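User: Please work through this fold.
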Amino acid sequence: MPEYKKIALITGANKGIGFEVSRQVAKTGVRVLIGARNAELGEKAAEKLRGEGLDVAYLPIDVTDEATIKAAAAKIEKDYGHLDILVNNAGIADLQQDGAPSKVQQDTLEKTMRTNFFGHVAVSQAMLPLLKKAPSARVVNVSSGLGSLALNSDPAGPYYHIKPLAYNASKAALNMFTVHLAYELRDTKIKVNSSDPGYTATDLNANSGPQTIEEGSEETIRLALLPDDGPTGGYFDRHGPVAW
């Protein structure tokens, strides 16, 4: 019987945190599928990691396109028959159009929620049958400290004055999904957690964050590789639990 090979799918993996998570997860011997909607960028990212001797492949997937999600799930089913790690990392932030509740445009709200929340629910639903076929699977929803209601409402908190409604609401919704999915899967060997990368220099924020990509990837990597006695239904950054 051939040796069991762990398979990971990471969305939005052609750059930034998703790319670094792909690199570090692949270094543990996992075959990583670089999920990206742009074929040229996805293939280029996969080629770069293969050049480092890592077992990676590009997988077309657009989290806002149901047809590509279904096609991705079908390809994983055909090629591997299971999925061990799902990292819902793809995300957007419209720094020009997002803002206060009185000013944010409806289309910005809808676009942000479609990618940062609805898309991750859709991908998770499509991949769940494959995750259930793994001996012990992990789902990591890449959230943000800006999704914390506790930090948003704390005048002494680091994010009190940062109020882009669409982005913050999308990450708060994603955290609720984490809690609900972890509860639904509580009697299985699938662990579901939210990771807060922290304020990391990525294209999402015009590279304004003080953390490096490596630092911002740490917690997502840890949660993706959790041992069987690890937590589920939690919200963590690289320093520990984050208040909901």
